[in-house]
Amino acid sequence: MDNITHSLVGLALGELVERSLPASAAPVQGPTRRHALLLTGLLASNFPDLDLVLTPLLPAPLGYLIHHRGHTHTLLYALPQVALLLGLAWLLWPGLRRLLRADPLARRAVLGTALLGMVLHLGFDALNVYGVHPFHPVDSRWLYGDLVFIVEPVFWTALGFALAPLASRPILRWLGLAAFTAMPLLFTWLGYLQWGSLAGLAALALAVLACGRRLGAGAGLVAAVLACAGFVGVQALAGQAARAQIRAALDSTAPGSRVLDLPLSSFPANPLCWSFATVAMGPAPAPGPGPGRARTYTVRVGVLSLAPGITPVAACPRRFGGEPGSRATALAWKYAETRSIAAFQDLQRSNCHFEAWLRFARVPSLLDGAATDLRFGPPGQPNFSTLPYAARAGDPCPAPLATWSYPRADLLGRPPGAN
């Protein structure tokens, strides 16, 4: 997820922990405890993304693909990160040192907030199509939620409108409310959101504010958290329905093919529109020699609407894969690319740069000597995942290389989870 979401989640965590505790025995330490919990939640919920400093270890794009969401995004390495975070806070904040020395409850609360903040970072990152591998080194497979867009305004709106009224200074309250009002308006004007999504976000903001005013600020924050959880639940149900429709469409388009993977990415604040890709092996070749007998795989991308009568694919926002000009249909195929599995495996064995890239790639497209993961952009247009493997064939092999499992181990003839 984006770091605005991570920050809001961390602040919400700190505020909820503070409100769950009894009042401080020493009233003068009350503000320090609250500030400590807010800061700990904020930092812990962002700390794993410090792995961005490791991206220069490999040439682009491999540095980002291999080392971002890498070791710092695992449960094992969350523990030294918590130690580092709390150690820095202890050294740099004298008021926190005094609080933690005097108050055992505050010590436990700060430690718990730091640990849970790290876990929440991994959990939110796991919700989208990018993926994480939190159980490395026991299990180095990528896990994908395929539930929410990587920048999700629903989280911003729910948590932002719950947290802004809790700011200690009026100027901060008004600036927060203004910012979280302006962002959805701007995204709608730029074409990232439908007007229906904007209306839904406005209703969510008003509901959270009303709950906070009538039942108390803490109730507003709880309502925001429940709204976020409910949205994820809705996305899970919608994702299941989307997969069923896509599989049925693929059976009609390519009968006899075997689906290996079906990555999904919803549109922001929109459970009806979904971008998707499919990775499938072609039908088994007939026995005996002859042309066309080689085994192939095909990657396809498309866009789906779960309610074409309300929002056909033509109305899904173009900036995230919509198809303006399409008829009022539920599904539109946008691209297909078929390759030889044997050639794919030969390239993996002969080109160490491509081999390294395969430790990240989930939907590989190979065009003109460059490899691109179609999860992150349209075919033929470079994105942050694009690797010019042919041009680097003679370069030294990339190192150090983390041994994440191959998302496409199935195409490489390896068992799932192989690394």
**Average pLDDT, all residues:** 92
Helix content: 40-55%
**Major beta sheet, specifics?**
5 strands, antiparallel
What is the beta-strand fraction? 5-15%
Contiguous uncertain segments of 5+ residues: none
- In whole angstroms, the N-to-C terminal distance is 26 Å
Shape: globular
**Topology, number of strands:** 7
What class do helices, strands and sheet pairing give? Answer: alpha+beta
Radius of gyration: 24 Å
Quickly count the helices.
Answer: 12
What is the element string, with H for helices and E for strands? Answer: HHHHHHHHHHEEEEEHHEE
Pfam families: YdjM
Keywords: Hydrolase, Membrane, Transmembrane, Transmembrane helix
Protein name: Metal-dependent hydrolase
GO molecular function, one term: hydrolase activity
List keywords for this structure.
single chain, 419 residues, 5-stranded antiparallel beta sheet, alpha+beta
What would you say this structure looks like, in words?
This protein is of the alpha+beta class and 419 residues long. The protein has a domain at 3-235. It is 46% helix and 11% strand. The protein contains twelve helices and seven strands. The strands form two sheets. Strands 1, 2, 3, 4 and 5 form a five-stranded antiparallel β-sheet that branches. A hairpin with a 2-residue loop joins strand 2 (264-267) and strand 3 (270-281). Helix 1 (3-20) packs parallel to helix 7, helix 5 (94-102) crosses helix 6 and helix 7 (153-163) runs antiparallel to helix 8 (170-189). The longest helix has 37 residues, at 217-253. One of its GO terms (molecular function) is hydrolase activity. It holds the Pfam family YdjM. This is Metal-dependent hydrolase. The chain crosses the membrane at residues 74-93, 105-124, 144-164, 171-189, 219-238. Keywords: Hydrolase, Membrane, Transmembrane, Transmembrane helix.
